[in-house]
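Weekly modeling sync, notes
Attendees: S.R. (lead), two postdocs, one rotation student

Agenda item 3: backlog of single-chain predictions. S.R. asked that every request posted to the team notebook include the full sequence so nobody has to chase files. The rotation student volunteered to paste the first one in as an example of the format we agreed on. Action items at the bottom.

Example entry:
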Amino acid sequence: MLARNERVQPSGAFATGAIVRVSRLQLSRVRPPRVQIEIKIRATQLSEIPMHSTPRDRLPRPRIDTGILIVFVITTLASLAFLVLAAKVTGGSTMAFDRAIIEGLRHTTDPAIPAGPQWLQRVMIDVTALGGGTVLTIITVIVVAYLLVIKRWSTAGFVAIAIAGGGAANELLKSTFMRARPDLVAHLTESYSSSFPSGHAMNSALTYLTLAALLARTQKSRRVRVFLLVVAIALTTAVGFSRVYLGVHWPTDVIAGWCVGATWALIFALIAHALQRRGQIERPQATDDSNVDPGS
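Predicted structure, as returned to the notebook:
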């Protein structure tokens, strides 16, 4: 006796979730073939079946080990870049590079006048304030207060420690290198501490990038996540450029501040992810699926 079972999954909205089992039994070679068909339909809820399944949905998510490796490589390269830059700054080999950029941002006839229209100087003064201690402290206090209001106690403490710790690290680095401010051109804004690394560049990088990374983890839309990170990077870049334009920092001061600030933010973003997986700080609250762009 020959038995064969075939399992068919029909397509179409009407037949979704149906399981059709066809059994053909050939009882004898003498008699005509006798076919017995048994159809069993098991109803399933349409909500349990993804109606818009794409190949991307079936791809496995990256392992946390891969993320750790990527962060390790990036932080290692950024740290190495900072160390190399610090060594060159200490040895004075970057002075030609620094002088060329600062002098290139001033009028050739009068180095006290910055290049560009007059309104650009006012814009740069406003932009540089976005990386100042007052503005960054206000932003941090608002974010921490909001997290406390919605009872995300551990996340609030984590944000406060990450940003306050970065500011303390900047002061430690400044006191270690004690580099003098540029004296080639007139300063277009006030400055008090030593020059290397740039406090505005470093603190804006670690603050804006840390907050953007935490906010991005609450969004399912890739476009929104990319937008948040791009805005953070744009703010950090603008603040750093304004410091050189206003003549209060050498370009290498700003580059070093970017390296340390971005590395700090990246490390704390990874720590936050690890603590959330362990349940030691609150997991991010995802947005509603109805607000997510299907093409994201």
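Discussion: group reviewed the output briefly. The chain has a mean pLDDT of 74.
Action items: rotation student to repeat for the remaining queue; S.R. to check formatting next week.
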